[in-house]
From TrEMBL:
One of its GO terms (molecular function) is DNA binding. InterPro entries: HTH_HxlR, WH-like_DNA-bd_sf, WH_DNA-bd_sf. This is HxlR family transcriptional regulator. It comes from the Bacteria. It comes from Paramicrobacterium agarici.
Amino acid sequence: MVTTCSEPDYVANPYDADCPTRHILDRIGDRWTVLIIGILGRGDARFSELRRHVGGISQKMLTQTLRGLERDGLVRRTVFPEVPVRVEYALTDSGRSLLEPLYALQDWSIRHLGDVSASQEAYDRANQ
C-alpha cells in the first residue's frame, strides 16, 4: 500500500492534492515561471529587464512570481546598497536544474507550432 503525503511515511505523489509535490508542479508549470526561468537562464537580470523581456506580464504578476520562486529556492534576489538601490535576480542551482526540461518544452512548442495551429483551425471549423 502506498501512503500519501498526508501520512507520516509518505511517498511523494503529485496526484494527491495534499502532497507538497503538487505545489512544486503548480509553480514550475505556471506560464510566467517558465518564461522568467528561461530569461534568467541567460544571466542575472533586474526587475525592469525581466518585465521588458517577458511580454504581457504585469508588474504585479512579475512581483508575485519572483517572490514565489524566491520562496521555493529557485531564484535568488540580491539587493545592492546603492543609490538608487539596485536589485538583481538570479537562478539558484535548483533553478538552473530546471533549464533543461523547460528548454525542451520551449523547443517542442516551436517545433510543433504548425501542427498544433492546424489542429486548432480544423477543430474550430468543425465546431462552428
